[in-house]
Design brief:
The protein is of the alpha+beta class and 670 residues long. The chain has a domain of 139 residues: Butyryl-CoA Dehydrogenase, subunit A, domain 2 (Beta Barrel). A hairpin with a 5-residue loop joins β10 and β11. It is globular.
Length: 670
């Protein structure tokens, strides 16, 4: 990273750091080899001629922003091909998501090819048989075929069983006939669908031999290769401006008697034979494997967003001086205020918790997917349950965390040039895509209710993430301990208590004569609470265990700081959930006072390493895109430089004065 002059406050902060920042970078990336690979990739991409914008994207029109995003995405793809730089886009490599991170940084909002590089490729990898992969994967990797993933419809999203698009098999021509029977059946939201993609994966209700066979996936060409015009029977376009993701090119798609060959059904799990015979999948949930991969991958994406917001907030807080609590003394850095540390430091800890837990879940998922390919389905329900609540809790916490970082930057955080508004927009979007959070929590709750029933029936063979419930069938009061282990036990007691309470509420409503469905709805607030509590246990356990597991491979100084982050995370959530912990454990008022003191002590212990911790993310200025968070700390200079780029500042008098304001003033009467 080349810097000419660095703000003196940041220079002093970096001198205080007690650990090797490069070691932290390697740890966060997943290894020194990954760091080296990432930096090489970034260097290659950032050297591309024409990749930087003279006029910031925020000043472009909606149409121009999209076209500029396509231009830059194509530049990147073309230059990567020329450089022959090998980059893993397939899900075998969790850390390779840095590819999409830098592309988002360059486009600033999001690349129109984002869903092609993620969901489209992952679905080909996960749901096509070998013959289909041999045909489609090379085309997709080379972008001869540009695709997206079309599941969500105007009338249905997370409830995918309610999707209305139909695919009816015609055995005479060996084709599927796709139709959009209603307005609400239009595909709605897929990124790149509007004007970028020429193919898409379509999720539709399959009908064959007069029978309904549920949801299946198909690969469908929607635009002509040469002209890019929509093919006959296709109605496609963009859905318009959104809260964010303006360059994602989200689209709508409708079909009218549109025919595709039989071989275009994705047939790794289920298939339709030439005569129309439907061969069912070994497990219906295998069709949703792409969504599980997407949710787990999203956790890493969310962690990076929160890390970026933390970088901006910490560096700005180190440079910004405000107020004079002590007369005749200089204004202190706002990072010295405990309230500022309270706003920001938890987000550093949280980004590490999500990154580490996400990596663990990814590796676990890859093992489970391998088992599934060998016909072993036992762990699939647990994977589905934990990926659902993790997606919900991580997206919810990160959105709040990014907003907290924005507020910590005061009025300057409201500037788009800070990049915090954009980071908040892309992070909060994750609350609804890949499954809306409330529905995701209720998916986990179904698994928890079944598990609690097994516990009551005396079944002790529980899967790892719920095994702790066995300790609370006949709970006995244990002395509260203000330690990480004690906090985890307390959070387990909360989760078990909420799961039991939700289950008992369900039983109460059914006993009173309500149907299972109505009882579920009446207990749904408690069910969501139970799922969140369960997820908090999982997050804390994995965070603690994984840091402890890596202790021997880390230097004592770095390990000490990471332990402080872990403890901060646990104590923070113990205090946030103290009402629940008081209800379900033996914690006392004095214990809470001890935790409060320890939390404030941890903030003080982390304070000298704050800038070092965010430097350890190693997020380049070109990716961070922030006037407030650059490595050199030239906050005020950058804010002013960016303001001068406004097209309105290119002329002393705007034409609106002569067109509107001056005539109005001349007509005005005193």
């Amino acid at each position: 990273m080349t810097v000419t002059k660095v703000n003196e406050d940041l220079v002093r902060e970096r001198r205080k750091c007690t650990f090797d920042v490069n070691e932290l970078t390697h740890f966060f990336d997943g290894g020194a080899d990954i760091t080296s690979e990432r930096r090489k990739f970034e260097k290659t991409v950032l050297a591309i001629k024409g990749i930087n914008d003279e006029i910031p994207e925020d000043y472009l029109s909606h149409k121009d922003r999209y076209e500029n995003a396509v231009r830059k995405a194509c530049l990147v793809k073309e230059n990567l091909n020329k450089s022959k730089l090998q980059v893993a886009l397939m899900p075998e490599k969790y850390e390779a998501t840095y590819v999409n991170t830098i592309l988002k940084g360059l486009v600033k909002d999001i690349s129109p090819f984002f869903l092609h590089d993620t969901m489209f490729l992952v679905t080909i990898w996960g749901q096509m048989n070998e013959e289909q992969q041999a045909e489609w994967m090379p085309k997709a990797k080379a972008l001869k075929v540009i695709g997206t993933y079309a599941q969500t419809e105007l009338g249905h999203g997370t409830f995918i069983r309610g999707l209305e698009t139909t695919a009816t098999y015609d055995p005479e021509t060996e084709e599927f006939v796709l139709n959009t029977p209603t307005l609400t059946a239009y595909k709605w939201w897929p990124g790149g669908l509007g004007h970028t993609a020429n193919h898409c994966i379509v999720v539709a209700q399959l009908y064959s031999q007069g029978k309904h066979h549920g949801l299946q996936t198909f690969i469908v060409q929607i635009r002509d290769f040469k002209t890019h015009n929509p093919l006959p029977g296709i109605h496609v376009g963009e859905i318009g401006p959104k809260f964010n993701f303006q360059t994602a090119n989200n689209g709508f798609l409708g079909f009218k008697n549109y025919r595709i060959p039989r071989k275009n059904m994705l047939m790794r799990n289920a298939q339709v034979l030439k005569d129309g015979t439907f061969v069912k999948s070994k497990n219906d949930k295998l069709t949703y494997g792409t969504l599980v991969i997407g949710r787990v991958n999203l956790i890493n994406d969310i962690a990076i967003n929160l890390a970026a917001a933390s970088v901006i907030a910490v560096r700005y807080s180190a440079v910004r001086h405000q107020s004079k609590p002590k007369p005749n003394e200089p204004e202190p850095q706002i990072l010295d205020y405990l309230t500022q540390q309270h706003k920001v430091f938890i987000n550093i800890a949280t980004s590490h918790a999500f990154r580490i837990t996400g990596r663990w879940l990814w590796n676990t998922m890859m093992g489970i997917l391998k088992d599934i390919s060998e016909g072993k389905m036992e762990q699939l329900p647990e994977l589905h349950a934990i990926s659902c609540c993790m997606k919900a809790v991580c997206s919810q916490d990160s959105a709040l965390g990014v907003e907290q970082c924005r507020l910590a930057c005061g009025g300057h955080g409201f500037m788009k040039s800070s990049n915090l508004p954009l980071l908040y927009g892309v992070t909060t979007a994750s609350i609804t895509y890949e499954g809306e959070n409330t529905v995701m929590m209720l998916q986990t709750a179904r698994y928890l209710m079944k598990t609690w029933m097994q516990v009551l029936e005396g079944n002790t063979a529980l899967t790892p993430t719920v095994k702790y419930l066995l300790n609370f069938v006949n709970p006995t009061d244990t002395k509260w301990e203000n330690t990480p282990e004690g906090i985890i036990k307390g959070l387990q007691a909360v989760a078990a208590g909420k799961i039991k309470a939700a289950y008992d509420t369900m039983v109460k409503y059914v006993t009173a004569g309500n149907s299972q469905e109505d009882a579920w709805n009446l207990a749904s607030v408690q069910l969501v609470g139970a799922s969140e509590a369960h997820c908090r246990v999982f997050l804390c356990e994995i965070f603690v265990n994984e840091i402890q597991r890596t202790s021997k491979s880390l230097s004592p100084n770095l390990y000490k700081v990471l332990q402080q982050l872990v403890e901060l995370y646990l104590v923070y959530w113990a205090l946030e959930k103290k009402g629940d912990i008081l209800l379900y454990s033996t914690i006392s008022k004095n214990d809470i006072a001890v935790l409060t003191n320890r939390y404030e002590e941890l903030l003080g212990l982390l304070r000298p390493n704050a800038v070092g911790l965010v430097d350890g993310y190693d997020i380049r200025d070109e990716v961070l895109n922030s006037t407030l968070g650059a490595y050199d700390g030239r906050v005020y200079e950058r804010l002013f430089e960016d303001a001068l780029k406004s097209p309105l500042n290119q002329e002393q008098v705007n034409s609106s004065f002569h067109k509107y304001t001056k005539p109005f003033m001349e007509k005005a009467k005193l």
